[in-house]
Specification:
CATH class of the largest domain: Alpha Beta
Strand order of the largest sheet: 2-1-3
Strand content: 5-15%
Family: Belongs to the iron/manganese superoxide dismutase family.
Radius of gyration: 20 Å
Structural class: mainly alpha
Shape: globular
Order of helices and strands: HHHHHHHEEHEHHH
Organism: Alkalihalophilus lindianensis
Number of helices: 11
Largest sheet: 3 strands, antiparallel
Bound molecules: fe (ii) ion
GO molecular function: superoxide dismutase activity
Number of strands: 3
CATH architecture of the largest domain: 3-Layer(bab) Sandwich
CATH topology of the largest domain: minor pseudopilin epsh fold
Helix content: 55-70%
Distance between the termini: 58 Å
Pfam families: Sod_Fe_C, Sod_Fe_N
EC number: 1.15.1.1
Length: about 300
């Protein structure tokens, strides 16, 4: 039972994270926020210990337990983030955020194999590259030797954009994804694009037309007070730093090639089934608070 193996691995990863960072997280958000997570994780680990062969009922119970953990984890981590809002990441101290769901959770739309490689290898290398660049630039500031600054600035931009965009990417997808957003985000989409379907069509066309590797990005422009869709080819030098990404889609080949070969269109089409709108909405509502002079 492949799904069960995946869940066991995911549950143990969360348990390991809890063992090393639990005290810190609890210090930030308090016991009332952490106890639903611990309760649901214990319940899931117990359920995983049971060895029922009756597919239907046991499978339902397992899925229910996993979903409870998924919700409790996201709520707790969301709280931790807002508590940590003003704490800076130390120089060279970036870390790979854990996936908020098991590696196979986005199947059939995105395969387990891709998620493993994409998260554990590609994203990790952006984190490592950014940390290295930041430390090298710190060294340069200490020694006053800026001979290689162009190189390290490029590395910092390339790996930094990669780290930040991937961090958003994992969170704007969910096994519970798909459908349409609601509330003010939907109203804004309708105002700026005509309809949700028009936005989706425009975003898909933009993603499909990215030359080589890159991203499609739905942004809120604090200056024009509108949503816009952008492409980021070579994310290190074409990102619009004035914008706040809300929804991002990775169309680098490593994100789909193993499963879709060179067929980017069906990957883009299927990806919509994974979009986690509540997270996009959360980002939108926060971003709306940022305002510059219109020009
Ligand atoms: Fe990627």
């Amino acid at each position: 039972m492949n799904d069960k193996k995946e869940l066991v691995e995911w549950a143990h990863q969360l348990k390991d994270i809890w063992n090393t960072q639990g005290a810190f997280i609890e210090g930030q958000v308090g016991q009332e926020k952490t106890s639903p997570f611990i309760r649901s994780l214990t319940q899931l680990l117990d359920t995983l210990e049971e060895d029922y062969r009756i597919e239907g009922e046991y499978q339902d119970k397992l899925e229910h337990s996993a979903l409870e953990v998924f919700k409790a984890w996201n709520q707790m981590i969301g709280e931790t983030r807002s508590e940590l809002g003003n704490s800076p990441v130390p120089i060279g101290g970036h870390s790979l955020p854990p996936l908020p769901y098991p590696y196979n959770a986005l199947e059939p739309y995105i395969s387990e194999e891709i998620m493993r490689l994409h998260h554990d290898k590609h994203h990790q290398s952006y984190v490592d590259g950014l940390n290295k660049a930041e430390k090298k630039m710190q060294e340069a500031r200490r020694s006053g030797d800026y001979d290689l600054i162009k190189h390290w600035e490029r590395e910092a931009a390339f790996h930094g954009a990669g780290h930040y965009l991937h961090s958003i990417f994992w969170e704007v997808m969910s096994p519970e994804g798909g459908g349409e957003p609601d509330g003010e985000l939907l109203d804004q989409i309708q105002t700026d694009f005509g309809s949700f379907d028009k936005m989706k069509e425009h975003f898909s066309a933009a993603a499909n037309a990215v030359e080589g590797g890159g991203w499609a990005i739905l942004v809120w422009s604090p200056r024009s007070r509108r949503l816009e869709i952008l492409q980021a080819e070579k994310h290190q030098n074409l990102s619009q730093q004035d914008q706040i990404p809300l929804l991002v889609l990775d169309v680098w080949e490593h994100a789909y090639y193993l499963q879709y070969k060179n067929e980017r269109k069906p990957y883009i089409k299927n990806w919509w089934n994974t979009v986690h709108w509540p997270e996009v909405k959360r980002r939108y509502e926060t971003a709306r608070g940022v305002q510059w002079h219109p020009s």
